[in-house]
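The record is passed on directly below:
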Amino acid sequence: MVDLRHATDEHLSTARTSAHGRSAHLLVHDGHLRQTLIALRAGEGLSEHNPPQAATLQVFVGRVRITAGEDEAEVGAGELVELVHQRHSVSALEDSVFLLTTVTGLPDGDPTV
């Protein structure tokens, strides 16, 4: 069992003092399911990358911006968003911690998704 409040505080503290302004920890890795806790210092981010087959982002602390092409969405503490199925980036508007849940590696059209 993971204490998310403790992990959130720990990783936010690490991100604030890290030269790269981030901290991440893989919490769950079960087959195609992955859940990663990510902390970003304000102004830091994850550069544009290809999306997994399915993903959500749930913000615990702070506020982040998700940019996909011309589209942008801001997500704040207590909010959950389904990530778009196109290249995107994430940037922290404030010191932030979020849970990234992904499903990867399933063939297209797999009915178990």
